[in-house]
Sequence to fold (162 residues):
Amino acid sequence: MKIPSRIKIGGHSIRVVTCPFVRDGKATVRGLTEYPERRMRLATHYLKPNHRSGRICESEMAVTFMHEIVHHVEDVYGANMSEKQVTRLAEGLLQVFRDNPLNFRAIRRKNMPLTAKGKKVMGAMKKTYGSDEKAKEVFYASANSGKLKGVHGKHKKAKKRR
Fold:
């Protein structure tokens, strides 16, 4: 898993820092959320009882990253969860995201007609990407993220029959 250097949560930009060891007071921990600084720190190594270090495996890094994300979501939205609840939710969400090919950006607005601008942009993307499927994927991802505006028209209301 590639961990980004920044993530956005509730309109806030959270800095993600990876370092060999993370300390919370005197304890060495795998991750730490620093709320006022809008930062999370993730450890890449852990200390063994005999004071030797080992590298944290990819799956543990992923669950720690998700755990710290849940803490920031909890802070931004005032969820007030226990540490046990945060851990369980993080592990559950990670499992769902890993086991299912989810792509929320690719959700299309069904039956939404394109404006003249939308048709023009879609045509240009088809030329650029060569395939209709890839062009549609990029087009709707861009539209859903807000990078493309004014490309969808309004639904036509069905006439009522009496």
